[in-house]
Amino acid sequence: MERRLVKIGEAAAMLGVAISTLRKWEETGELV
User: Fold this and answer.
1) Residue 14: what pLDDT?
2) Domain residue spans in the chain?
3) Are 22 and 12 in contact (CB under 8 A)?
4) What pLDDT is recorded for position 32?
5) C-alpha to C-alpha distances, 20 to 1, 2, 3, 6, nearest whole angstrom
6) What is the full DSSP assignment across 1-32?
7) Whole-angstrom Cα distance, residue 1 to residue 16?
8) Distance between CA atoms of 18 and 24, rounded to whole angstroms?
9) How many CB atoms lie within 10 A of CB 28?
10) pLDDT at position 31, please?
11) CA-CA distance, 18 to 27, in Å (whole number)?
């Protein structure tokens, strides 16, 4: 299976959250 990187804005849109939310999740260890 091919792994594809996505930009943070794309990931936020896919998950329906703000970019700042993804950054917070990364800082708190909720997102790896």
Assistant:
1) 96
2) 1-32
3) yes
4) 79
5) 30, 28, 24, 16
6) -------HHHHHHHHTS-HHHHHHHHHHTS--
7) 25
8) 10
9) 8
10) 85
11) 15
